[in-house]
């Protein structure tokens, strides 16, 4: 049994990268490459139950010179399966909202796979609106 009040949200440290990569790979069921912890404008927050990392969210600041605004792109937002639906995702996103206000961000944006229905409900509960779009990607490593 765990105590919800013992959950802490902090910035990820470099020494925690491998553990976070394993969490993200498992929960999102995909291969994870190099984590951009040292990239300018990129920050990762983690949720911990004691020393156990139970959640992660990565944010990247993107400046749009055409609209003269800063956007925050959200990626790799996960909570360990046995901690889901316990408010951990909401706490992580609350940290992101505070960070966005501090950085004077005008818009938060994220993408989510169609099968992540529970995540979609959380995003809508937190005030995100679904935007109809199609995402295209080109792998430049090939």
Structure commentary:
The protein has 142 residues and is α+β, with helices and mostly antiparallel strands. It has one domain (4-111): Aminopeptidase (3-Layer(aba) Sandwich), CATH 3.40.630.30. It is 25% helix and 29% strand. The protein has 3 helices and 5 strands; from the N terminus they run E-H-E-E-E-H-E-H. It has helices at residues 17-28, 88-102, 117-125; strands spanning 7-11, 42-49, 52-64, 69-79, 107-110. It has a 5-stranded mixed beta sheet. Helix 2 (88-102) links the parallel strand 4 and strand 5 (107-110). The radius of gyration is 15 Å and the shape is globular. The protein starts with 6 loop residues before the first strand and ends in a 17-residue tail after the last helix. The mean pLDDT is 88.
Task: Indicate the percent of residues in helices.
Answer: 25-40%
Low-confidence stretches: none
Q: CATH class, anyone?
A: Alpha Beta
Number of helices: 3
Using only C-alpha atoms, the radius of gyration works out to: 15 Å
CATH superfamily: Gcn5-related N-acetyltransferase (GNAT)
Number of strands: 5
- The CATH architecture would be 3-Layer(aba) Sandwich
Sheet with the most strands: spatial strand order: 1-2-3-4-5
Q: Approximately what portion of the residues adopt beta-strand conformation?
A: 25-35%
Order of helices and strands: EHEEEHEH
Query: Given the C-alpha coordinates, what overall shape results?
Result: globular
Structural class: alpha+beta
The structural domain count equals 1
Distance between the termini: 47 Å
Query: What does the main sheet amount to?
Result: 5 strands, mixed
At CATH level 3, the topology is: Aminopeptidase
Averaging pLDDT over every residue, what do you get? Answer: 88
């Amino acid at each position: 049994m765990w105590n919800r009040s013992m959950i802490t949200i902090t910035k990820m440290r470099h020494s925690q990268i491998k553990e976070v990569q394993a969490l993200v790979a498992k929960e999102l069921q995909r291969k994870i490459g190099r984590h951009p912890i040292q990239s300018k404008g990129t920050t990762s927050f983690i949720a911990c139950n004691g020393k156990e990392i139970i959640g992660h969210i990565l944010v990247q600041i993107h400046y749009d010179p055409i609209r003269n605004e800063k956007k925050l792109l959200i990626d790799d937002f996960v909570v360990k399966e046995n901690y889901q639906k316990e408010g951990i995702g909401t706490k992580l996103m609350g940290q992101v909202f505070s960070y966005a206000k501090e950085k004077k961000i005008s818009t938060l944006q994220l993408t989510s796979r169609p099968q992540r229905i529970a995540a979609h409900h959380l995003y809508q509960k937190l005030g995100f609106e679904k935007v109809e779009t199609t995402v295209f990607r080109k792998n430049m490593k090939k």
